[in-house]
Amino acid sequence: FPFRPADRIVCAWTAMQKVDRTNGCLVVLPGTHKGCLMVHKYPEWEGGVNKMYHGIHDYDKSLPRVHVPMERGDTLFFHPLIIHGSGRNRTEGFRKAISCHYASSDGYYIDIKGTSQEYLGKEVEEIARQRYNIAAVDFKDVWRMRCRLVKGERKNL
């Protein structure tokens, strides 16, 4: 995310159907939220990946993993820096979920130029230009368009 502090952001992932290891339940690496933002890249998977699907390439693969099977309607809240992902869906069906992120309006935007998030920002800008038929758009503008105040007073975000 192009805003900080990360400790004022929470992710919510809600299963819209039963999810388990066969259809790709979430996996988290406990304690990794205490680290810094890791560099994200496209995984080098056979058959490729969906646009905007990024993974972390350089992490300690010996860290313990926790698979999180969930029933329909279960919601997992987690810190945005925790290393997380999902396993491959090995079924013929879909794995449906709703993902939402909440951030304090006290947060502030950062300049992503020269950071590991710069290439992601360029991708988001490209998609926004195509989807909304906008000639010029900034990464921060995209977030401003998509953010909604849930409660309280809008400050920075």
Number of helices: 2
CATH H-level superfamily title of the domain at 8-108: q2cbj1_9rhob like domain
Q: Low-confidence parts lasting 5 or more residues at pLDDT below 50?
A: none
Number of strands: 10
The biggest sheet, with number of strands, parallel, antiparallel or mixed sense and barrel status, is: 3 strands, antiparallel
Rg over alpha carbons:
17 Å
In CATH, what is the class of the domain at 8-108? Answer: Mainly Beta
CATH topology of the domain at 8-108: Jelly Rolls
Q: What's the quick description here?
A:
With 157 residues, this protein is of the alpha+beta class. It is built from two helices and ten strands.
Describe the structure.
Pfam families: PhyH. It is a single chain. With 157 residues, this protein is an alpha+beta fold. The chain has a domain of 101 residues: q2cbj1_9rhob like domain (Jelly Rolls). It is built from 2 helices and 10 strands, in the order ββββββββββαα. The strands form 4 sheets. The chain has a 3-stranded antiparallel sheet, with no helix packed on it. A 3-stranded antiparallel sheet has the order 6-3-8, with no helix packed on it.
Topology at a glance:
Elements: E1 3-4, E2 9-15, E3 26-28, E4 40-41, E5 55-56, E6 66-68, E7 75-78, E8 84-86, E9 97-103, E10 108-109, H1 118-132, H2 139-146
Overview features:
single chain, 157 residues, alpha+beta, Jelly Rolls, three-stranded antiparallel β-sheet, 2 helices, 15% helix, 22% strand, phytanoyl-CoA dioxygenase activity, phytanoyl-CoA dioxygenase
